[in-house]
Structures are given as C-alpha cells and as structure tokens.
Amino acid sequence: MAKMWAGRFKKELNKEVNDFNSSISFDGVMFESDIIGSIAHATMLGKQGIISLDDSKLICKTLTEILDDIKNEKLELDLEAEDIHMFVEAELTKRIGEVGKRLHTSRSRNDQVALDIRMHLRKEADETMHLLLKLIEVIVKLAKNNKETIMPGYTHLQRAQPITFANHLLAYAFMLKRDYDRFMDAFHRMNYSPLGSCALAGTTYPIDRETTAEMLGFYGPTENSLDGVSDRDFCCELASTASISMMHLSRFSEEIILWCSWEFKFIDLDDAYSTGSSIMPQKKNPDICELVRGKTGRVYGDLMTLLTMLKGLPLAYNKDMQEDKEAIFDAFKTLKQCLSIFTPMLDTIKVNKNNMRNAAAKGFINATDLADYLVKNGMAFRDAYKISGSIVSYCIENNKVLEDLSLEEYKKYSELFNEDVYDAINLEKCTFKRNSYGASAIESVEKQIEIIEEFLNSISE
Ligand code: ARG
After folding, report:
1. If you count Cβ atoms within 10 Å of the first and of the last residue's Cβ in the chain, which end, N or C, has fewer?
2. 109 CB less than 6 Å from ligand 1?
3. DSSP class of residue 12?
4. CB–CB of 106/179 below 8 Å?
5. How many Å apart are CA 321 and CA 319, to the nearest integer?
6. Ligand 1 pocket member 302 (CB < 6 A)
7. CA torsion angle for 355, 356, 361, 365 (degrees, to 10)?
8. Tens digits of residue pLDDT in 368-392
9. In sequence order, what are the residues at sequence separation of 6 or more whose Cβ sits closer than 8 angstroms to the Cβ of residue 43?
10. Are 112 and 40 in contact (CB under 8 A)?
C-alpha cells in the first residue's frame, strides 16, 4: 500500500522497517473506537462548514458500512497497514475516492490515537468493574453462609486470634470495592476528549471540540492541546489500579492455596476448578490460584513498561508512545481473565468448617483473652500479658492447652483467677464477643455485609 506521506519521500519504506513501525497487529482491536471517533469528527466538520454536508454524510455512511463489514468479518484488517487509523482511512478512500480524503482535515493521528485509546479503555474498565462486582457478590454470599464459622486469624502466618470466616472473606470484599472505586476515579479523570488537539498545536479551522466530545460521551474536551495528545497518565493509572487489583487477587489466591493444602484443609476446590498431576495420583492442584499469583507479576510489568516508556519523553507525541497499547491491553486482558475464572472457582469451594474450628481450638489463640480476663479483674495489661505468657509456656512444656488447666494451676499464677476464667477463654465467646465495629462477631459482620450490599445496590440502580 502506498504510504500516506508518499509525497515527501522518494523511496518506498524498507519492508522490515514497515513491520517494525506497524502497530495494526495490536491496535486493530480499537477499530470500533476509531470509526466512531471519525464519524463524530466528520459530522462536526460538516456542521462547521469545514467540509460540505454532503461529503460529511457520505463519509459517515461509508464509515458505518466499514464498521459493519469489519464486525461481520466481511472486511479483514490489512496487516501491511501502519496502524488502524491509516487502515480505516485508506479503506474509506478506496470506497469513496476524493471525498474520503477530506476526513483528515484538522485532525492528526496523534489526537486520533489519543482519542481511540481513551474510548477503548473506557470499555475495558467498564467490563473489568463489572467483573469485580460479580466477585464481590460471591464473597458476600459465602460470608453470609459463614457468619458462625470460626477459624484462626493469623499474623506472621502464626495463629493469632479467633475470627469468623465471614470476617476474613469480607476483608477481600472491601479491597475489591476500593479497586472498583479506583477504576471509577481513573475513569472520571480520563473521560475528556483530546480530539481537535490535532498534531499538538490545535488548528486554524473553526472546529467545535465541545460537540465532538459530547457526541462521544466525554465530559468535555481536554483543556490543553499538547497535554491532550501526549500524556498517557490515564494508562498508568489504569495499569496501576489493575496491578493493585491483581495484588489483591494474588493474596487471596495464596490463602486459597494454603487453605486447600493437607496441612490446613480448610476448604476443597471443586474438581472443575482444579487440576491433577501427571505422576502423583493423589494430587489435586490449585493451578488457577497459582496462575493468578503468577500473572500478577506480568501486570506489574505492564505498569513498569508504561511508566518507563513515558519517563523523559519530551512533549508532545513521540513514537515511543505506540508502546502504550500492548502494555495496557495486556493488563486488562489478564485482569479480566483472572477475575472471570477466580469468581466461579470461589463460588464452588467447599468449606470444611470443622477443620477450621479445630485449628482455632489449638495454638493458644485465646491467650489474649486470658490476659484480658486478668485486666478486667484489675491487673495492668503488661503484667497480665506476662503471666499469660508464662501460662502458655507451662502448657507447652506439659503438652496442654489453656482449657485443660485446673483452677488450682491457674491460681498458682494469680489469685485473680476464678471459675469464670473458663468462660472467658471459651472459643465461641472469644470470637463472638469481639463485636467492635468491623470485627468478627455476628452483628459486626452483618454490618459489613450491609455496607457492601448498599454499595452493590447503589451501582445496579
Ligand atoms: N500508531 C501510532 C500510535 O499508536 C499512531 C500515532 C502515530 N502518529 C505519528 N505521528 N506517527 O501511537
């Protein structure tokens, strides 16, 4: 295909350079945004009298046909083309000749690509946010079924204090809710149209940027022509949000991997969401979680690609910026894929409530409550902490747990101990009396569920 800039050049582009330069193999996915953007531009050109109304109408009609043809696979993208923008314009000119050549008046590929990528990423963000909501819904469902399921809560991966499985699960619901909010925030900041910034300096034609921005669902035009075409901070923000979201999924995955090991056996994965080993017949592997954990690094890599690509770039557009697309598209593709598979996997887990409870019943998970008992009977916390530690040490030496000790044994450590100490260290009581805001008690967990459900309802409204 002859290059659009053939007038300025005497030789054809070297084939390898053409391949190196070309982005259509990865920006072809933006065809719809590109065409819709061009339709808005052509409509505005007609309205402003920059091209004739007849030309404007013919361009719009033909662009719509091209869009349909690509969608219906009647028209294939030409991989020899430099990018999707050149391809669409060349196809338009092929179909309507001279008139097609008028489309690019007072526009540059620089504002075109800045526009297309914003429009494309709006859709990607929207789909991702939808998937985040689906996962939050599944977490809420599981939490509702596990309000009374006691498990050990950990710090340093050491049993720390008893919690409910519901409280543990809901921690992820709040993380994912913030991910949703972060995508929304990024959307609000990026939803301005760069169209009409032209190459970098704007134009002498009487264009109407408000109209094109409005036609394309933007809040308005970007305020500065150089900024409009040459910043990709929104890509960084989206990749950063995707990275944070992957990080959350990765932590959740890591816990699921632990929970379904024989050492924990807190949950079982459904057969449809786990894999076997080629050699060890007993194995049931949490491959999905491991892949999510692994792919997290890849999304971080996408973020680094974007930040590093932009670092030190002078204004305005530079070809380096063509590297934005593969990185940000990959970040979204990976996150969407992970969410799509993680959600049904979580939805089908079997919770082994007894194993969770048994794990919580060992390991001196109620030692804090023992100390608190002494505090409630008048002792200073530091002293109570020390005495409880000594009692734990005594138990370990004698292969006992706190519940096994006689009142006589307790009294050797402090006269403040009475018969009601057993009640104070009872596992259920320790768990369900923690009813502060955000805690594990049934009423505290119900409040959290209410907050998340309100959030979910506010979105579906
Ligand atoms: N394919 C280019 C990109 O993705 C489009 C913009 C090209 N502009 C230019 N002046 N070469 O960034």
Report:
1. C
2. yes
3. P
4. no
5. 5
6. no
7. 150
8. 999 999 999 999 999 999 999 999 9
9. 56, 60, 212, 215
10. no
Q: At residue 3, does pLDDT exceed 80?
A: no
Task: Supply 298's token pair.
Answer: 């890849």
Known catalytic membership, residue 22: no
Cβ(113) to ligand 1 under 6 A? yes
Q: What is the pLDDT confidence band of residue 11, given thresholds at 50, 70 and 90?
A: confident
Phi, psi of 413 (to 5 degrees): -90, -30
Q: Measure the CA–CA gap between 365 and 459, rounded to whole angstroms.
A: 39
Tokens 């945004």 correspond to 33
Q: Under a CB-based contact definition with an 8 Å cutoff, are residues 87 and 81 in contact?
A: yes
Catalytic residue among 25, 52, 261, 277: 277
Q: Is 102 exposed, middle or buried (0-12, 13-18, 19+ CB in 10 A)?
A: buried
Between CA 72 and CA 43 the distance in angstroms is 24
End-to-end Cα separation, the chain, in angstroms: 50
Active site residue 277: yes
Q: Is the minimum distance from the CB of 237 to ligand 1 under 6 angstroms? A: no
pLDDT band at 5 (very low <50, low <70, confident <90, very high): low
C-alpha 17 – ligand 1 centre gap (Å) = 15
User: Rounded to whole angstroms, how far apart are CA atoms 143 and 136?
Assistant: 10
Q: How far is the CA of 107 from the centre of ligand 1 (A)?
A: 13
Which stretch of 7-11, 90-94, 322-326, 437-441 has the lowest confidence by average pLDDT? 7-11
| Three-state DSSP state, 194 | coil
pLDDT at 461 over 70: no
How far, in Å, from the CA of 100 to the mean position of ligand 1?
A: 20
Q: Tell me the HSE value of 28 on the side-chain side, using a 13 A CA sphere.
A: 15
Instruction: Pick from 77, 113, 195, 309 the residue to mutate for probing ligand 1's pocket: most ligand atoms within 8 Å of its CB.
Output: 113
What is the whole-number distance in angstroms between the Cα of residue 301 and the centre of ligand 1? Answer: 23
pLDDT of residue 1: 62
Sign of CA dihedral 357, 361, 364, 368: positive
Whether 120 lines ligand 1, by a CB cut-off of 6 Å, is no
